[in-house]
Design goal:
The complex is a heterotrimer of chains A (414), B (450) and C (181). Chain A has helices spanning 43-48, 96-101, 105-112, 120-135, 141-169, 175-194, 214-239, 242-248, 256-261, 266-270, 278-281, 302-326, 378-389, 395-405, 409-413, and strands at 14-16, 24-26, 55-60, 72-78, 81-88, 203-204, 207-208, 345-352, 357-364, 370-376. Chain A is an alpha+beta fold and 414 residues long. In chain A, the strands form four sheets. Chain A has a three-stranded antiparallel β-sheet. Chain A has a three-stranded antiparallel β-sheet with strand order 8-9-10. Chain C folds into two domains: 3-137, 2-Layer Sandwich (Beta Polymerase, domain 2); 144-176, no CATH class. Chain C starts with a helix and ends in a 59-residue tail after the last strand. Classes of the chains: A alpha+beta (414), B mainly alpha (450), C alpha/beta (181).
Chain lengths: 414, 450, 181
């Protein structure tokens, strides 16, 4: 009696892998291309995934050393030159807006906290501001000052980190670790104030969660005494580096008109010469009482964006100084009921974050949960503009230009 | 017959292997002994007649082996120095101050899965690291480490060095092409473009030196730099521009920061090495650091006096004749460690009452060894020529390696078009200018002296 | 509240406005039909009288009865945020003209709104899903899309399935919460 093994058959167009014969591998090389396996949905997609003469598609991410989170970008290259770019989002999408619609007003603050995990105080500030408009609440002045103080500290932490990342994407290993010194000190003192190092969950509707305490103040005073020299030294580490300056200058240039049309805000817009800062353009909180400048640059390239953030750090230090000087006494929370039921209505609140305009559009239907909460994040739009900035640049500059716009994927993907 | 086959069937697999291997080894040993008895003198004569060839084979074998520890040392240096520049601690767990870190790193590579991507070309993929590593090792054959300590000295050594060193690009291109990965391909092509461009200023920058030296033999070039014994004889002071160009171009040749376009991890992940793992990747990895060592070594040889000391070391001799002691020698060898250890341990134990006696003994033994080792080195330095040479050579080379590591710690990366522009618009004209000025000076000096 | 802006808007957009201009805090709100969006926004952007250069936000809203596209604009000529609401989009087939001809950056915001609400922006050349996977068929932020743990909204219903979104053609949508504005 003989048992015949049936002849092994592989589907047409496949062969067994050399490593593991049980695994079938496609014969055609196109199987390895980053082309979506379905017919194009829009004319733009059809155009992008049609290759011209001498062009190739390069898939960057979501697991790439320098995509700043989980971003996938499909690049169309001609040699090393980028012809076109198609960012693919959604790897970090958590549906925060939907979650907020099913949480009550207090809970939404902790829901939006992890959006921009680099500067989460600003994420909290926008919904809080919008709810206060819905509820017609007057926030105590001390609370406003504490908000400004902590938020400006967070802005410095965010910008300091940006500088390190930017240098890292240009190949410099060291600056990131120096910039983490700044961030770490600030984060530690905010932890003393709020209780957490990263997702502070500190702002409340009508005030803040806790008053200034001794540890925070001593840490802050300690840091402020050497912040200026330390930050100057860190900036000098990069600014005086000829290679970095030569590379960043003229990289990813855009003019004011284009930046406005691409809905850019924040430092990326101010680097093109538009002095649009919501703290001045549309004042909120106690910013009208404080003195500070809106630094602008006219070059609109990566170097300008980088230098502008360095300037903003200095302005933030000024604001912190004034906040400490003028800090009034008084309560830190407005008197509000535990369960908030705002009248039906709509409110829009926008603030100036380290990356640009953070906005929240809240609709109340009279219940204790927001009917609709639209979160506007600047990183999302800045990343959208990458498609306009990149073509024509070299592959080497792709990540650096993206880094110079400073997107945070947590905010982009919501 | 049946009994034999039954016994054979009862054996386990290792038993079967041994049953074959042991008779085979026996037969081979007997054959070897018989051959040696019959043809021994003749073979010995053969070796003596071809001493140069034997020496060359031995030298290449030793160099191949010795490059692994050298790579370990350079990797450890880089980890530790960059860590200190970054305000980190760096490796510190494995061995004292983390010195065994890179050894463990290498062992880890051995244990990793040997992996070939699905659509890769297995033959080219497998051979690429071999090519890269062997070119690095081959080009070191002509390096004079110390007087009398070199693989081979011949009159075309410098040319040979550049020719073999330029072969690295073949290996990188092989790895990049065979990996079936676009990042690898880009990395391989980048390295090809970069190395081919930088070969030209690299070679041109030493032509001025060759005009002055009148030879391509590295040994002779080192000799010429030690005429007066002072460092002013070094070619660095007669060819400063040449040194500068050579150093920059060599940095690009070795794919080091700021010219490490081929493995720019922010852009193309790991370049040609993206798909490699395990020992194949280790070969690329080691070859990179061996290249750093070799580039530093050739710079030292050409411009910084090779194994010559920077100043004339006062000449003195230590006359030690152990034979004079007679039986005393035996007592010295037996007693000196004991007495020395006790001598060093006693004050520690007596002065610090909290120290355990065995801790004091260990510390005393270590101190004794340090002192004796220092004395032995001093003796070797003044008595043996190549120890002194090797000391200065290795010292200078590692000083240069430190410069490379320093650059890696501080500089960002340049862009590929800037890299090319720098090579063709700056380095090449300056190298030509250097050559022209040197030639002119030589002619003018000849005329003046005549 | 900027009364002057209200007057200017009333005089300029009288024929297309649906309902009165509302003002609250620092926001001015006008409501228009979906057909007038491109014309109104072009006027607001181009005319020096208004000069709304900054499109701060583009949001979709599902009121439970209809769809809305909401634009927030900023201008140096006024201290108010201007909210333009394009209302009256049918839930079955919401369509509104794209504003990418004014602000190319709105492309991604429109993609997001399409992804979340299914509002089709006519004229956007890249209107595909941006967050959700391409083979996804629901629109998560619509009011008839329930989360599995959405029991607070439906005490008797308990846990519902996620993918219950598209009602069969003709059947009324299962909307439990709506806002009257």
């Amino acid at each position: 009696m003989t048992t015949e093994t049936p002849p092994r058959r592989f589907p047409v167009g496949t062969h067994p892998s050399a490593d593991d014969p049980r695994i079938l591998v496609h014969d055609d090389y196109e199987a390895f291309e980053p082309v979506p396996p379905y017919p194009p949905r829009t004319e733009r997609e059809a155009e992008f995934y049609t290759l011209g003469e001498g062009e190739l598609l390069l898939n960057v991410g979501p697991q790439h050393p320098s995509t700043h989170g989980v971003l996938r970008v499909v690049l169309k290259l001609e040699g090393e030159r980028v012809v076109d770019i198609d960012p693919v989002l959604g790897y970090l999408h958590r549906g925060v807006e939907k979650l907020c619609e099913n949480a009550d007003y207090h809970q939404t603050i902790s829901q939006v906290d992890p959006l921009e995990y680099i500067s989460s105080l600003f994420c909290e500030w926008t919904p809080v501001l919008a709810y206060e408009k819905l509820l017609d609440v007057e926030v105590p002045r001390r609370a406003e000052y504490i908000r400004v103080l902590s938020a400006e500290l967070n802005r410095i932490a965010s910008h300091a980190l940006f500088m390190g990342w930017f240098a890292l994407d240009l190949g410099g290993l060291t600056p990131i670790l120096y910039s983490f010194i700044e961030r770490d000190e600030i984060v530690e003192m905010l932890a003393a104030l709020t209780g957490q190092r990263m997702l502070f969950n500190y702002f409340r509707i009508g005030g803040v969660n806790g008053d200034l305490n001794h540890e925070f103040m001593s840490r802050l005073g300690d840091w402020m005494s050497r912040a200026t020299t330390q930050i100057e030294a860190n900036i000098g580490l990069l600014n005086e580096n000829e290679i970095l300056v030569r590379r960043a200058a003229g990289m990813g240039v855009m003019d004011a008109e284009t930046a406005l049309r691409w809905c850019m805000t924040g430092p990326n817009l101010r680097a093109t010469g538009v002095p649009y800062d919501i703290r001045r353009a549309h004042p909120y909180s106690v910013y009208p009482e404080l003195e500070f400048d809106i630094p602008t640059k006219t070059e609109g390239d990566s170097l300008a964006r980088y230098l502008l953030r360095a300037e903003e750090i200095k302005q933030s230090l000024r604001i912190i100084d004034q906040c400490l000087e003028r800090m009034p006494d008084g309560p830190i929370m407005a008197k509000l009921p535990r369960l908030l039921r705002p009248r039906p209505g709509r409110a829009w609140a926008a603030i100036e974050g380290p990356r640009g305009l953070y906005g929240v559009y809240a609709i109340s239907d009279g219940t204790d949960q927001p009917f609709r909460l639209k979160i506007h994040d600047p990183s999302f739009l800045h990343l959208g503009a990458v498609g306009m900035l990149l073509p024509g640049n070299l592959l080497a500059d792709t990540m650096a230009i993206m880094a110079s716009l400073d997107p945070v994927m947590g905010g982009v993907d919501k | 017959m049946t009994a034999l086959s039954r016994t054979w069937d009862r054996l386990t697999l290792p038993g079967k292997a041994l049953a074959i291997l042991i008779p085979l080894l026996l037969a081979l040993t007997i054959g070897l002994v018989v051959t040696l008895i019959l043809f021994g003198p003749f073979l010995w004569q053969l070796i003596l007649d071809n001493l140069e060839i034997v020496r060359f084979v031995l030298a290449s074998a030793i160099l191949l082996v010795i490059f692994i520890p050298i790579a370990f040392i350079v990797i450890y240096m880089e980890m530790k120095i960059i860590a200190l520049m970054n305000l980190r601690i760096g490796p510190e767990r494995v061995g004292p101050w983390g010195t065994l870190f890179s050894v463990v790193h290498g062992l880890k590579f051995l244990l990793k899965e040997d992996f070939i991507p699905t659509r890769a070309d297995p033959i080219v993929f497998t051979w690429a690291p071999v090519v890269v590593f062997s070119t690095a090792a081959l080009s070191a054959l002509v390096l004079p480490f110390a007087p009398g300590l070199y693989g081979q000295d011949f009159n075309l050594a410098l040319l040979y060095f550049f020719a073999v060193g330029g072969m690295t690009v073949v290996g990188l291109l092989m790895g990049g092409w065979a990996s079936f990965n676009k990042y690898s391909l880009l990395g391989g092509l980048r390295s090809a473009a970069q190395i081919v461009s930088y070969e030209i200023p690299l070679t041109l920058s030493v032509v001025g030196l060759v005009i002055l030296a009148g030879t391509l033999s590295l040994n002779t070039i080192v000799m010429q730099q030690g005429v007066s014994g002072w460092f002013v004889d070094w070619y660095a002071f007669r060819q400063p521009l040449g040194l500068l160009i050579f150093f920059l171009a060599a940095t690009a040749e070795a794919n080091r920061t700021p010219f490490d376009m081929t493995e720019a991890d922010q852009e193309i992940v790991a370049g040609f090495a993206t798909e490699y793992s395990g020992m194949r990747f280790a070969f690329f990895f080691f070859a990179e650091y061996v290249n750093v060592f070799i580039i530093s070594a050739i710079t030292v040889v050409l411009f910084l006096g090779g194994w010559q000391a920077p100043f004339p070391v006062p000449h003195f001799e230590i006359h030690v004749d152990p034979g004079q002691l007679g039986m005393g020698l035996l007592f010295l060898v037996a007693l000196a460690p004991l007495v020395g250890t006790l001598l060093f341990a006693a004050p520690i134990y007596l002065l610090r009452s909290r120290t355990r006696w065995w801790v004091a003994l260990i510390v005393g033994f270590v101190l004794f060894n340090v002192v004796v080792g220092g004395l032995a080195f001093l003796w070797a330095y003044v008595s043996i020529d190549w120890v002194a040479g090797l000391f200065w050579f290795v010292g200078k080379t590692f000083a240069l390696i430190f410069v490379f590591v320093w650059m890696r710690g501080t500089l960002p990366r340049v862009r590929s078009d800037q890299l090319m522009a720098f090579a063709w618009k700056w380095l090449l004209p300056v190298a030509l200018l250097n050559l022209f000025v040197t030639a002119l000076a030589v002619i003018v000096l000849d005329v003046v002296q005549a | 509240m900027d009364r002057a802006l209200k007057r200017r808007l009333e005089s300029r957009f009288e024929p297309v406005l649906r309902g009165p201009i509302r003002q609250r805090h620092d926001q001015t709100e006008i409501r228009i039909g979906p057909g007038d969006v491109s014309e109104v926004l072009r006027t607001l952007h181009d005319e020096p009288e208004f000069d709304f250069k900054v499109l701060a936000d583009l949001a979709g809203v599902d009121t439970g009865r209809e769809m809305q596209a909401v634009y927030h604009l900023w201008s140096a000529t006024t201290s108010d945020w201007l909210r333009v609401i394009a209302e009256g989009l049918p839930r079955e087939d919401p369509r509104v003209p794209s504003v990418t001809f004014l602000w190319p950056g709105a492309e991604w915001m429109e993609r997001e709104t399409y992804d979340m609400f299914g509002i089709i922006f006519e004229g956007n050349r890249d209107l595909r899903r941006i967050y959700m996977p391409p083979d996804y068929t629901s629109f998560p932020l619509r009011k008839d899309f329930y989360l599995p743990d959405d029991s607070a909204r439906s005490p008797g219903a308990g846990v519902r399935h996620v993918e219950r979104t598209h009602s069969p053609a003709g059947a009324p949508a299962d909307v439990r919460r709506e806002v009257r504005s």
